[in-house]
Design goal:
The complex is a heterodimer of chains A (178) and B (315).
Chain A: E1 2-5, H1 7-25, E2 31-35, H2 39-55, E3 61-63, E4 95-103, H3 107-119, E5 124-132, E6 144-148, E7 155-160, H4 162-165, E8 169-174
Parallel strand pairs in A: 2-3, 2-4, 4-5, 5-6
Antiparallel strand pairs in A: 1-8, 7-8
Chain B: H1 12-30, E1 43-48, H2 54-65, E2 69-74, H3 86-95, E3 100-105, H4 110-116, E4 123-129, H5 135-149, E5 160-164, H6 171-182, E6 186-190, E7 206-208, H7 211-214, E8 220-223, H8 239-246, H9 250-254, E9 261-263, H10 276-279, H11 286-306
Parallel strand pairs in B: 1-2, 1-3, 3-4, 5-6, 5-8, 6-7, 8-9
The chains are: A alpha/beta (178), B alpha/beta (315).
Amino acid sequence: MSVALSAQDITRALTRISHEILEKNQGSANIVLLGIPTRGAHLATRISSIIASIEGSEVPTGTLDITLFRDDLRMRPPRAIMPTKIPTSGIEGKDVILVDDVLFSGRTIRAALDALGEIGRPRAVQLAALVDRGHRELPIKADFIGKNLPTSKSQSVRVLLSEIDGRDEVTIEEGAEL
Amino acid sequence: MRHLLSIADLNKSEAISILDTATELARVSDGAVKKLPTLRGRTIVNLFAEDSTRTRISFEAAAKRLSADVINFSAKGSSVSKGESLKDTAMTLQAMGADAVVIRHSASGAAQRLADSQWMSGSVINAGDGTHEHPSQALLDAFTIRKHLGMGASDLAGLNVAIVGDILHSRVARSNVLLLAMLGAKVTLVAPPTLLPVGIQNWPATVSYDFDSEIPHVDVVMMLRVQQERMSDLFFPNAREYSRYFGLNGERMASMKSGAIVMHPGPMNRGLEISAEVADSARSVITEQVTNGVSVRMAILYVLLAGGALEVGSN
């Protein structure tokens, strides 16, 4: 096991991502942050509060569960469905920024795009990920990345966040994820 | 979990996870999204060898909202009325590639028989077998109670529930007693002695013959239909007397606790076990039970069908 990102690294990466989001979208006026449960949702909340402290105004933030849209449901035992909370302002015509912890095969994001399409039609969709570990199986790319982590497929990346795990850390471990 | 045959097959955490899944799915049905791709390409057969309105429609709506293909199969108008056996019917469904069969049958144990046999490989969901069980109804009732009176808790601890009426013939009562007791509710069965089954003392519930003394203490009154079609004998002197002692009318409803709710699994005999005044009152959650039924049945289909077997290969 090796530590890829420390707590301080995570904070710096999220601060940089927040600035990049504001730069690319010329402010926070039209953006909506949607985190993908479980850890993406916590990251979205953190980015939202960083943006609020920079811009001085709140950014609509919610969660988007993609379980029901996955294409690999039949390969695993049933998963619990997590809450989907769309901000009251909606996503119609907004610039939606999806937030996830690890970008890997890209299948989660494909499912998220399908889920978004059922809810409405955003003006644009962007993607922020704390870690990009490569090995894409679909033509999907992140707009904002905390850190590129070159990994082999036999390794697994674990993101620990203080909200759930008691501390902030990203580690690389041997042994593929189940 | 492959089949849903009886509440007795579930443990508390499995039951709560179905209710939690239903809560999320209900949110989906409320919002703009009415259809999910989750069960695309799966075939679900509704095999109804006994009449039903809401259970069949509810399972059909649930399956369609999850994008499954639904085949409706009722005994009337099929080869069952020509005398085809359950075995031959099941083998036909297997040959057509049914992933799940939702079965309602007048014989207790029909769903179990279908699941235990090697006739078909899909999941079996019991939608009511004779006077045995009706697990999806109990789950939707528990869901409805939790939504109204659960105060954010995951189970039903501390709630008092009275189930009133024809316990003897009721599969709804049987499933509900098991589930509500498992979730921590205190269940009281209220019925004339002739409408209580043998062995009732072994159920996780208390029995009372006096509706009026129970009604001020309960949070939920669940009325049961008097199942005249299953009654081959005389179980009470006449309908008026039954209604007087065990029916829920406006006067009895007035002595209920504030916030207490009235439930009925339907179809109702208005004027017999429940008066129209009560059925249409603000305490009645009877139509909401139907709405919740769709979400709960979506959750059941999701839990049984969405996941694959582990050995199908890892990601």
